[in-house]
C-alpha cells in the first residue's frame, strides 16, 4: 500500500501547552509559532466542546478527524488530556491507532517515564524524537 | 464489569517489567528512614511521602493507561474498580477490596491485607504517628488529579499501628472542569 503524505505532527497537553511539533511539506502562511499553536489548540478545544454539547447521549465523545479539500486533521485525546494530532493528505484512513501507538509506546516510554522531564514543558528528548521519526517514516511519506 | 477490570489488570501486569520485591521494600524503607532523619518530625515525614507519591502519580497514570488500554471511567464506582484491579495490580501486585461506600458513591475504602511495602516493618513506639506507606495516598491523588478529579486519600486504619486491617479512605472532592485556553471566551 502506498504511504500517505504526512504534513505535521503535534502534541499538546491538557493546559494547551505545545509539548512537541514537527512539520513537513508545508507551503502556507502557517508559521508554526506560539501564536499558531494557540490558534490550533483553541480550535480543537472549541470543536471538542461543541462535539460534546450536541452529543445526543451524555458521554465523553471526542471528535476524531475533520477533512478539507487539501488535508485531514486527526486528533487522539488520552484520558489524561494529552492531544496527539496529525495533518495528512485528505484521503487517509482513521489514524487513532497510530496516534495511540505513539502515545503508549513512544511518548509514555521516552518522555513521561523520564524522571528528569518536567511535566508540561516542551519535549527535547533525543530518544523520543528519534523513535518518533523512525515510526513516522515507516508509516508515512515524510519529505523535506 | 469487575471481571473485565480483573482481566485488564492481569494483562497489564504481564506487560510490565518486574523487580525483586526486596529491592522495592528496601529502597522504600531507605527513603522513609532518610526522611525521618532529615525532618525529625513524623508529621512532616508523612507530608513529604505524600508529596513524593503525588509526583509519581502524575506520571504513573499515563503508564497505566498506555499498558492497560483503558478509556475514561463512566463513574466513580468504575474508578474505584480501576484503582484496585488495574492500578494496584500493575504496580504492587495486589487488588485491595473496595468497601464502605457512602450513600452518594463519592467515598470508598480500600482494604490492603498484604502491603508489599511493609513486609518487614514493625513500628517502634516513637514512630506511632508515622503513616509508613503514605506515598500510596499521594500516588492516588496525583493520578486522579491528572484525570481532573480532586480527591483526598488517607490511611484511616493501619495494621502497623495495631489495627485489625489497613484501610485507605478515598474521598472525591470535586471534578475539575476543562481548563480553558488562555485568551479564550473573554
Q: Could you describe the 3D structure shown?
A:
The complex is a heterodimer of chains A (144) and B (186). Chain A contains three helices and six strands. Chain A has helices at residues 34-53, 96-112, 126-139; strands at residues 4-12, 18-23, 65-67, 72-77, 83-88, 140-141. The longest helix of chain A is centred in the N-terminal third of the chain and has 20 residues, at 34-53. Chain A has 144 residues and is of the alpha+beta class. Chain B is built from five helices and four strands. Chain B has helices spanning 2-15, 21-39, 42-68, 76-92, 134-146; strands spanning 97-99, 107-111, 149-157, 167-175. A four-stranded antiparallel sheet of chain B has the order 1-2-4-3. In chain B, strand 1 (97-99) and strand 2 (107-111) form a beta hairpin. In chain B, helix 3 crosses helix 5. In chain B, 37% of the residues are buried.
Q: Level of helix content of chain A? A: 25-40%
Major sheet summary line of chain A: 6 strands, mixed
| Mean pLDDT across every amino acid position of chain A | 91
Q: Let me know the largest β-sheet of chain B.
A: 4 strands, antiparallel
Q: SSE order of chain A, as H and E?
A: EEHEEEHHE
Oligomer: heterodimer
Average pLDDT of chain B works out at 94
Q: What is the ordering of alpha helices and beta strands of chain B?
A: HHHHEEHEE
For this structure, the CATH topology of chain B is Muramoyl-pentapeptide Carboxypeptidase, domain 2
Strand arrangement within the widest β-sheet of chain B reads 1-2-4-3
Task: Give the overall form of chain B.
Answer: globular
User: Which segments of chain B are poorly predicted (pLDDT under 50) over 5 or more consecutive residues?
Assistant: none
Largest interface: A-B, 23 and 22 residues
Number of helices of chain A: 3
Number of domains of chain B: 1
The span between the termini of chain B is: 43 Å
Strand content of chain B: 5-15%
Q: Number of DSSP strands of chain A?
A: 6
Amino acid at each position: 500500500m502506498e504511504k500517505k503524505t504526512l504534513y505535521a505532527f503535534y502534541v499538546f497537553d491538557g493546559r494547551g501547552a505545545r509539548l512537541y511539533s514537527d512539520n513537513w511539506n508545508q507551503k502556507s502562511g502557517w508559521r508554526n509559532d506560539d501564536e499558531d499553536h494557540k490558534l490550533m489548540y483553541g480550535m480543537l478545544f472549541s470543536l471538542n466542546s461543541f462535539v460534546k454539547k450536541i452529543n445526543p447521549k451524555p458521554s465523553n465523545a471526542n471528535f476524531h478527524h475533520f477533512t478539507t479539500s487539501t488535508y485531514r486533521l486527526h486528533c487522539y485525546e488520552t484520558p489524561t488530556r494529552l492531544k496527539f494530532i496529525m495533518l495528512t493528505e485528505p484521503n487517509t484512513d482513521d489514524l487513532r491507532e497510530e496516534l495511540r501507538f505513539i502515545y503508549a509506546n513512544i511518548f509514555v516510554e521516552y518522555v513521561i517515564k523520564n524522571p528528569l522531564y518536567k511535566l508540561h514543558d516542551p519535549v527535547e528528548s533525543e530518544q523520543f524524537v528519534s523513535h518518533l521519526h523512525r515510526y513516522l517514516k515507516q508509516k508515512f511519506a515524510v519529505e523535506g | 464489569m469487575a471481571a473485565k477490570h480483573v482481566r485488564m489488570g492481569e494483562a497489564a501486569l504481564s506487560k510490565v517489567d518486574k523487580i525483586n520485591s526486596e529491592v522495592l521494600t528496601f529502597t522504600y524503607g531507605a527513603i522513609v528512614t532518610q526522611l525521618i532523619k532529615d525532618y525529625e518530625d513524623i508529621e512532616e515525614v508523612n507530608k513529604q511521602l505524600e508529596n513524593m507519591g503525588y509526583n509519581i502519580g502524575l506520571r504513573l497514570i499515563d503508564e497505566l493507561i498506555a499498558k492497560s488500554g483503558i478509556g475514561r471511567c463512566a463513574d466513580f464506582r468504575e474508578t474505584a474498580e480501576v484503582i484496585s484491579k488495574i492500578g494496584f495490580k500493575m504496580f504492587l501486585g495486589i487488588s485491595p477490596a473496595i468497601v464502605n461506600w457512602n450513600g452518594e458513591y463519592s467515598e470508598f475504602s480500600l482494604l490492603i491485607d498484604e502491603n508489599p511495602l511493609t513486609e518487614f516493618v514493625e513500628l517502634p513506639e516513637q514512630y506511632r504517628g508515622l503513616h509508613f506507606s503514605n506515598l500510596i495516598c499521594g500516588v492516588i491523588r496525583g493520578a486522579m488529579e491528572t484525570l481532573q478529579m480532586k480527591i483526598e486519600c488517607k490511611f484511616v486504619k493501619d495494621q502497623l499501628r495495631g489495627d485489625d486491617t489497613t484501610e485507605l479512605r478515598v474521598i472525591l472532592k470535586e471534578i475539575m472542569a476543562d481548563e480553558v485556553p488562555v485568551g479564550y471566551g473573554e
